[in-house]
User: What shape does this take?
Amino acid sequence: MQQTIQLTSAIDQFNFNALYRAPEGDVQGSVIILQEIYGLDPYIQRDVDRWANLGYHALAPSMFDRVERGYVGEHDAAGTQLGVQHLNSVGNDNPIADIQACIDWLADRGPVYIVGYCYGGTQAWRAAALTQGLTAAVCYYGGGIRSAIHCQPACPVICHFGEQDPYVDAATNQQLLAQHHPDVAVFIYPESGHGFNNEGPTSAPADVALARQRTVEFFQQFA
Assistant: This one.
């Protein structure tokens, strides 16, 4: 069963909420799940359950609590506009500090992995370089990776992109990552667009399943 816990960021002692669910069965470690710009919406809640069912301590921080505690936005034009405003308001340093607090809270529960989607994909990329204690990171369609290409990951990273994504150009990101980080594997899914892990109209079931399989197998390499 999911529960809401409170963690404290070291950067300013701010208390923020996170969804947590304990693992089912044999424990594989921990996964930090980073939201899109819509907060801890039903898609992230389902992802928390999915990771817990796979045997991981699943923890999803509420990344916009400094701006609007408990924010959950609709996946429409108004929700997107407000989510982008919250993204800009929260800045670059606060998300990394909050992720570090999550890592620290999970540190005695085995290896700590991170997976992020859209906004969370960018933050997972940045966290791989700017936090301490991550074992591996997976970035789904992180639109800000291009502007953070200078970050040097301190743990293994892979990236997933949808070829039909109208917001994040998969080929450009693949080229940039190959140029600056040739050790980072990039997977492009030809039938899927943005947000395809949500299993909505912009995703193909085979792509969703393959990306999830690759993510789990990637984490298992470092167990």
Summary: The radius of gyration is 16 Å. Strands lie at 3-8, 15-21, 29-34, 56-61, 112-117, 136-140, 157-162, 185-189.
